[in-house]
Amino acid sequence: MTTLADPVPGGRPGDVERATALSGELSGRGVHGVVLSYVDTAGIGRVKTIPTARLASAAAWGVGMSPVFDTFLANDSIVTTDVLGSPDGDLRLYPDLDQLVVLAGQPGWAWAPVDRVTQDGERHPGCGRTFLRRIVAEAAERHGLTFKAAVEVEWTLARGDAHGDAFVPATTGPAYGAARQVELSDYAADLLAACAAQGLDVEQVHPEYAAGQFEISVGAVDPVAAADRSVLVRQTVRAVARRHGLRVSFAPAVVGQGVGNGGHVHLSAWRDGVNLHSGGEGRYGMTAEAESVTAGLLAHLPGLTAVTAPSPASYLRLRPSQWAGVFTAWGRETRETALRVVTGTAGLRDQAANVEIKPVDLAANPYLAIGSLIAAGLDGLTSSAALPGETTGDPARLGEAEAAARGVRRLPVSLEQAVEEFRGDDVLRAALGPVLADAVIAVRRGELASVAGLDDDQVAAAYRWKY
């Protein structure tokens, strides 16, 4: 006779017992259901939910969900490839109990990210969380490195009573302005309280540049947890906003013109507890290894954009002179270069120094984005890549000859160009593996087809409330 305590494919030793205890604890705290969360290739958060009493069963056997979601588009259309997009088959969603959180913004619910596993107990090659975990393990095993990461989350708040799909900013205060903070003070306070209750160490939350725009930053952690946090932060931002009658968009471009929502990634490489981006003999305290990691990121940026800026709307945001970082250049605290070397304040640099990757938005699957960034950095490390000269000021102002001499070039100006760069990047495609690389290409092409013939405003509107 089979019982919950029997070993099962895809589970972890002790998870069933833990889940049984957690189920009772959650019920005692008034939690009725658990959100099982993952992110698809298009960057859309997908879920299944279970009653709290079913948590032990989910830990033992997983919860069924079709692999077809690997080729879902943001508009819920499905594209097909030779290996993906079929109505056949099934996967099991296994909750990561270490990351389970009671949702302060959604009373009665808890949340947990999942790993996707086949019915035979094999890790699904299309699972972004599994991919990121594999890249992190390779960094440790082959190079003796660990990484820390954090994702900045920008969003736009709209009035919830606006007609239809129209965008009406929820605040009229100026960029970074005190008036905007005052107008939405109650919302921001409740958001901070919810994050604190969920164990999210918020470093800052503030009004941003675009109309109705805010940003929240949380502390850097290991890459898998950083991707999980990015999803949880957005779940919380949206839930608290709904309770205040507000509507949220994380879309790269909410309107056709102007500054969009970014999802900048901060990344640092560590060895034996020492930050390689500080205390070295290289530029701004970088070690030789940190410079090579940064050089690897720089070299692969054109192909990376297909992963980090995956929507047609992403290219409405990636415009020069808007702090989006659209040139293959780096600089210390330079907000117009694609890579911003952050040294941190004197006295904290051994902990705070990192590199910020700017051409990233929240249409990106955070697991695929962070994993691909690390893979690019490791390629630079393996080849001892040399970091080119620093760029100061706005690279858009460089003359053609000077830009060419510096190796500074414009990143793809469209998703179509980004896909072609990705197709030509053997390192990125090999890191993702054939199934995920195939999904990235197919889904990006599907997104392009879905907006063919639309102008900028129509493209922005098509994705405004998808993210």
From TrEMBL:
GO molecular function: ATP binding; glutamine synthetase activity
Transmembrane helix keyword on record: no
One annotated GO biological process: glutamine biosynthetic process
GS beta-grasp domain sequence ranges: 29-121
Keyword Membrane belongs to the record: no
Keyword vocabulary terms for this entry: ATP-binding, Ligase, Nucleotide-binding
Pfam families reported for this sequence: Gln-synt_C
InterPro entries: Gln_synt_N (IPR008147), Gln_synt_N_sf (IPR036651), Gln_synth/guanido_kin_cat_dom (IPR014746), Gln_synth_cat_dom (IPR008146)
Domain GS catalytic stretches: 128-467
Coiled coil ranges: none
Membrane-spanning residues: none
Superkingdom of this protein's organism: Bacteria
Family to which the UniProt record says this protein belongs: Belongs to the glutamine synthetase family.
Record's protein name: Putative Glutamine synthetase
Lineage: Bacteria, Bacillati, Actinomycetota, Actinomycetes, Kitasatosporales
